[in-house]
Amino acid sequence: MEYAVKALGITHIFGEKSVLSHIDLKIQKGEVFGLLGPSGAGKTTLIKILTGQLKPCEGTAELFGMDTEKLKSSDYRNIGIMMDNFGLYERLSCYDNLKIFTTIYGLPKDRIGEALKSVGLGETGRTAVMRLSKGMKSRMRLARVLLQKPAILFLDEPTSGLDPATASDIHRLLKKEQEKGTTIVLTTHNMSEAARLCGQSVLLNEGHIVEQGSPAEICRRYNHQKKIRLHLYDGRDLEIANASSSARLLEKCLLEELVETIHTTEPSLETVFMELTGRGFD
Amino acid sequence: MNNIKAVLEKQIKDTLKNKTILIQFVMFPALTLIMENLVQIENMPNHFFAKLFSVMYVGMAPLTCMAAILAEEKEQNTLRVLLMSNVKPWEYLMGTGFYIWAICMAGACIFALCGEYAGMSLILFLLTMSVGIITSIILGAAIGTHSKNQMTATSITLPVMMLLSFLPMLSMFNTNIRRAASAFYTQQISMLLQQTDMSWSLKGAGVVLINILIAAVFFICAYRRCGLE
Ligand SMILES: Nc1ncnc2c1ncn2[C@@H]1O[C@H](COP(=O)(O)OP(=O)(O)O)[C@@H](O)[C@H]1O
Ligand SMILES: [Mg+2]
Predict the structure, then answer these.
(1) Which parts of chain A sit beneath pLDDT 50?
(2) Does B19 touch chain A (CB under 8 A)?
(3) What is the 3-state secondary structure (H, E, C) of A140-200?
(4) Is B26 on the interface with A (CB under 8 A)?
(5) What's the whole-model pTM score?
(6) What is the ipTM of this complex?
(7) A250-269 tens-digit pLDDT
(8) Which one of A45, A48, A210 would you pick to mutate in the ligand 1 pocket, going by the greatest count of ligand atoms within 8 A of its CB?
(9) Ligand 1 binding residues, C-beta < 6 A
């Protein structure tokens, strides 16, 4: 099985600070893979290493079997990278910004309108980039990478700073890209986004992988977090395990008609992460 | 070829919207048109303004534009995106450099028109301007490559540009300045334009060649240090 991305023992240190330590990753072709973790976890640094923008202190990374440190600029034809700090020509219109890249790659011009429409900027082709909101600029960056129809997409926080409706549009768009067979590697600190989008994922904390698997699988592993929460008429809250051991107590509460509300709580990526690291997100 | 074309097209569209660059390109040619046609001073050498402003143009426009464009692209992280999209550094530099050269040569044609150059002297004038413009572009590329952002670029460009464009003017009044200035290509070009036949002397050509080499060395050093990152 050939992997889209293979990383072995990636370790990176900025000055004195260890940002990534011994990261091993395998990402299958056609997968949506999430690099999850709070800000400062090392997600962006890892993306930079995986895309050959940064040389790791230790370890190796491969993209479709090619060593990422030896990627030539022609190899980037098939790699779409969207980073927060990637610039747009502010004075040029959205259309002209994308036209630069259709010229470079020798792509038909109608791709421009297509790409703009797919990120919901169909009407703003003539607007100068400097007149766009932050969210619209972020969508422009996405349009720029979609233009070249790459085999793999690296998206660093593709929906951060976007309103929920636009974020949903982006999610739909990414699903559509995946159906076309594009491999997608994305970072996010938004766990519900990860649960919606990602087939596989790793949880990063301070440069270490603390969990990996599909979001559902990770949650299942923390099933002991499954609880039943009761709110009683006398104002008390009870939290009991969602297991046979709780049957007696539950029966008693119900028989005595003490229960005002009853809920089950399942582990989410957030609560799993909290349990693993003792801290939350954001 | 596509890559150079993309860089060129982008640059043409951007310049029309970029006032600071646009002013650099049109200020001196416009000033020459005005001065040569409206200002008459007795005993003034023939086409004084056309010659003076030609030299100042060579020392200013290509230098500041090349440095500013490069530095802005680095600051805004747009150059990185181009380089990661299969554009080679030399293609970017060629595209941008050629573009500036072409615009400045158009400016040179206006000087030639105002200076009433014709025939052989027109060819020699344009050739001389072209050499000066290319030297300035290389120097600008060196400054732009060295600078991390536009601030740094401007702070280096300003004194260099002043030196190159004002020394030839000041040397008209002072022999010491003239002697010092003759080490710079702009003064050599200025002296050449003062002669009616504009024949390149061996010494003049040598000084200009050394200037080009020094500019090239500056550029290579800056490029070696960090590329176009
Ligand atoms: N160029 C750099 N120099 C020094 N430290 C850096 C650099 N880039 C990132 N860091 C540090 O590395 C850590 C991880 O950063 P980053 O990869 O951006 O995290 P994330 O994308 O998960 O928020 C942070 O503590 C950050 O301060
Ligand atoms: Mg980040």
Answers:
(1) none
(2) no
(3) HHHHHHHHCCCCEEEEECCCCCCCHHHHHHHHHHHHHHHHCCCEEEEEECCHHHHHHHCCE
(4) no
(5) 0.85
(6) 0.88
(7) 999 999 999 999 998 877 88
(8) A45
(9) A 14, 19, 37, 39-45
